[in-house]
Amino acid sequence: xxxxxxxxxxxxxxxxxxxxxxxxxxxxxxxxxxxxxxxxxxxxxxxxxxxxxxxxxxxxxxxxxxxxxxxxxxxxxxxxxxxxxxxxxxxxxxxxxxxxxxxxxxxxxxxxxxxxxxxxxxxxxxxxxxxxxxxxxxxxxxxxxxxxxxxxxxxxxxxxxxxxxxxxxxxxxxxxxxxxxxxxxxxxxxxxxxxxxxxxxxxxxxxxxxxxxxxxxxxxxxxxxxxxxxxxxxxxxxxxxxxxxxxxxxxxxxxxxxxxxxxxxxxxxxxxxxxxxxxxxxxxxxxxxxxxxxxxxxxxxxxxxxxxxxxxxxxxxxxxxxxxxxxxxxxxxxxxxxxxxxxxxxxxxxxxxxxxxxxxxxxxxxxxxxxxxxxxxxxxxxxxxxxxxxxxxxxxxxxxxxxxxxxxxxxxxxxxxxxxxxxxxxxxxxxxxxxxxxxxxxxxxxxxxxxxxxxxxxxxxxxxxxxxxxxxxx
Length: 474
Known about the structure:
Elements (H helix, E strand, L loop, with lengths): L3 E6 L3 H11 L13 E7 L18 E2 L6 H8 L3 E4 L7 E3 L8 H21 L2 H5 L3 H10 L5 H15 L6 H9 L7 E4 L4 H13 L3 E4 L3 E6 L4 E5 L2 E5 L1 E5 L2 H4 L3 E4 L5 H4 L6 E8 L8 E3 L2 E5 L10 E7 L9 H9 L7 E9 L21 H14 L7 E4 L9 H18 L5 H5 L4 H6 L3 H9 L20
Parallel strand pairs: 1-2, 1-11, 2-7, 5-14, 8-12, 11-18
Antiparallel strand pairs: 3-6, 4-6, 8-9, 9-10, 13-16, 13-17, 14-15, 15-16
Helix pairs in contact: 1-8, 1-13, 3-6, 3-7, 5-6
């Protein structure tokens, strides 16, 4: 039997999730030995990891309460983690013309917003929530007295410092918040998040996986049973391919033939944010805080292969110019002198191509009106099997209606499940791994998605659980 030639295009965290799932396909199908993949990975950068690149240090975490598939990946690769404290839910906001907004106000506003959005998921049509931005939803809460003026200001600032924009769909934000508690318990990978990609690549190479580094894919031709990939390394033909790319990279690839309905991803607009890391000789004089121009985070571990305090600035977001290096040095050391600065790195993430660099956006999330098409496409691809006849699948954090590395890796895994199912394999182990895999990925239970996306009638009311019921709590 000839091997199945599979191309993985992109080796950020969605590519890591897809490659790890292919290497451990026995977890997702009852017939793993019937698949003999010959895998080639295409990565445009010279190093693996995508946005979890070696120099992108500081404030890169895993969610301890929504860890899968990283629990398996970290165990398989023998990577250690340690717990770090919660971040922006516990920092002060220093806004102009206002008193300092204490962390308590920040946290209370987030909890109130989360609770209100979770109620809205059950009571409001998805279409109405998707048409609304998060600031519009906050305005409604303010009018009803659910959040204060300070709380609204704090939440608006949180969106800027985490997402780079306030133009976010209230539906997408609600689904994202539904996946995890508040505040988030965070884990940090020892050695940095990039170590996950480095270890996965090493393990895959040992199994014969080929890597084409610095091989940006420019064109993909999709035929009935094959995919031709045009990259900087040449032209190669495969039986199947998985696109493991962010929306900003998808927009730069020409796809012809019989592609998937990729329009919901292609129309997304990346936000803009700058991230700067300052490695210091000695300690910082600044406590963690956020202002209208930046948020400052102190990484709790030592940077790999370097000593000193690592301070991370998020800045230069929507409507703001990036800070100068000297401004940041003065904030963390109390002086504009560079004598305390051991290392400095900075990048603006807005998908703008620069000479010698890949175009990168820090995060691309659904704007108002964009969430429902993404939900339908991802559900059809991963759970409904409506694109199983295509030799092309896709993984992207945006298809999980979120913006973190866990969601990217999880879509990589589901893209592999779709690929195996399209080849005629039984993928019931993948479908049974979670009680509600759609809820795990999207944040909404299967029945609610069916009601809102398909117009399915609501399920009959459940019999109330009473004390002494053998099926209820003791």
